[in-house]
Amino acid sequence: MLTFLTGAALLLATPVFAQDSFSLPAGCTAFLTVQGADCSVDHHFTCTADPAGHKQRVSLDEQGLTYLGTTDEETQWIRSFHPLSGHSEQLESNPADPASLTELIETGRDSYDFITLSEEVGPTRYVGEDRLTGKSVVIDGVSILETEFEITAFAADGTQIWASSGHEFINPDWKSFLSGTSVIQTTTDSFERDGRPVEFIFPGEQGFLSANPKHGCGVVMSSFEVMP
Questions:
Q1: In the beta sheet, which residues pair with residue 122?
Q2: How far apart are CA 41 and CA 31, in angstroms?
Q3: ∠82-84-85 over CA atoms, to 5°?
Q4: pTM (two decimals)
Q5: Are 132 and 147 in contact (CB under 8 A)?
Q6: What confidence tens digit (pLDDT) does each residue in 83-94 have?
Q7: Contact assessment for residue 42 and residue 54, using Cβ atoms and an 8 Å cutoff
Q8: Which end of the chain is least crowded, N or C, by CB within 10 Å?
C-alpha cells in the first residue's frame, strides 16, 4: 500500500499538463494508452514493486488526474485513489465472492460481492455481476468482447449509495476491463455516461502516454465517482 500511495503522490506532484507526455513513477512501464469518448485518457502500466499479475491504471481529464487504481490478474479491484475527493480504498481480505475474469470468460458470467476499506469514507460493499453478451466489437483495429453489468454500492449500515448498469468491454490478453456506456442512479439523481474507447495506442505509436484527452472534450461531465 505504501508503494501505491507514494506513486499517487508522485503523480499528483507532477505537472502533467505542462508537457504533452505523461510521466510514470520510477520502476513502472506502460503498455497501453486509451483515448475515451468522454474526454478521458487512460494509461495502463505495470510496476516492478507490485506483485506478479498486478496492473495499474491512471485516468486524466482536461483538468488533470482523476483516478489511480490497481487490479490483479483476475481483475479484482485491489486499491484505488480518487484525487477529486481525496479518498483511497483497499480491498478487504477474503471477499465473500471475489471477482474472476477467468470465470467470466469460461462460463460467460461472473458475480461478485466484496467490501473496500477506506479511512476517509469507511467500508463500502459492492455487489454485482458481469456477463458476456456474445458480441465481439472492433475498435481502432482491436477486437474486444462486450459485457453487460449491474453493480450496487452499499454503506456500512446497508443503505444503498448508488447503482449502475450498462455495457463494458474486456480484452482477455490484457486481462483488463474497458469502459463502456452506463446509467448511474444515486439517491437523488440519475445520469448516463459514455466512456467507450475511441483509440488504442501502443508503445512507439504517436499519442502513447499523451497527457491530453482528445475526444468529447468541452461537454459538461458529472463529477460523481463510481468504480471503473
A1: none
A2: 14
A3: 75
A4: 0.88
A5: yes
A6: 988 899 999 999
A7: no
A8: N
